[in-house]
Amino acid sequence: MDVSFKGIARLVSFVDKIESETYPEAPSCIHSEITAKVLETLLPTYQISEDARILDIGCGQGPALDIFRTKGYLSAIGITLNNEDVRVCREAGHDVHKMDQSFLDFGDESFDFVWARHVIEHSIFPYFTLTEFARVLAKGGMLYLEVPAPETACHHETNPNHYSVFGHGSWTSLLDRCGFIVRDTVRFAFTTPMGPDEYWGFICKKP
Q1: In whole angstroms, what is the distance from residue 72 CA to residue 24 CA?
Q2: Is 13 inside a domain boundary?
Q3: Within 25-70, where are the H helices?
Q4: Which residues touch 103 (CB under 8 Å, ≥6 apart)?
Q5: Contact 87, 109 (CB under 8 A)
Q6: Is residue 21 part of a domain?
Q7: Cβ(96)–Cβ(90) under 8 Å?
Q8: Which residues span the domain enclosing 83?
Q9: In what order do the strands lie in the sheet with 76-80?
Q10: pTM for this entry
């Protein structure tokens, strides 16, 4: 593909614009509860060892990182694009870097477990982003990807910085194209002040 320098410059400018649309996100009850519930089951079921190299993509202000540390996982790293989230996490003693999920500054196969909860919908090109997740994940490693369902009462597809809110089949297809094997899926259905809502979780392995 012949991409002009002007085209690359336009893409960089667009990515910079999207970064400016991020916002700090303190842990909420529903997100914290789901995070704790998933990790309580997933870590022992898929035998994620305490010395596993873990990457928390879009770590926010560290709810998953807190759980990893409490459970003895001391090699967990977080990334986020928001400066305030970086500050809060570092003050809590977490190893967190400011980084775009689509351009991971880590070597190939750097991690054994990638935790990516409610981040991929913020990608303008999720196919490319998922290939980055696959690149930094070691063979035999696990990915947990969670996304909001489209067209619920909350209408996540209308969120100003949700660019990729797709159907269930679209996500499984993209994961397959990126080389992941979907080992299991989970659904979280609940009611919000706006009405019924739903999240989907995909537990994946890199063969």
Answers
A1: 27
A2: no
A3: 29-45, 63-70
A4: 132
A5: no
A6: no
A7: yes
A8: 28-205
A9: 95-98, 76-80, 54-57, 111-117, 137-148, 195-205, 181-192
A10: 0.94
